[in-house]
Design brief:
The protein has 110 residues and is mainly α. 78% of the residues lie in helices and 0% in strands. Helix 1 packs antiparallel against helix 2 and helix 1 packs across helix 4. The two termini are 24 Å apart.
Amino acid sequence: MTIVIVSITILLEALSVVCCLHYLYGEKIRIDISTLCFVALDIVLMDSIFCSNLDLSWSLMIYPIIFFYCLIEFKCTFKSIFTNFILYIVIIGSLQATIMTLYGIIFNIQ
């Protein structure tokens, strides 16, 4: 049962990344081959990290994947991709920290 919950969480996180990136570039979300490949790569990478107890530093491999997804999907200059990538990291990091803090407060987890 735990693996199902983790897989659903990973899927929702991948979809939130796609939503955030499309919002930053001011484009509507399209379900095309590059988006599906990105979500599939994200799920495979994160599931394999969780299931095989790999070092969490492997999760950093998602950042080059996100960068290439932006390069392929939005076809922008390197400067705009880099700027939006930094904004993405700040937004997602802030959201994760806020949600984990609230989660810890609600469920009394330290």
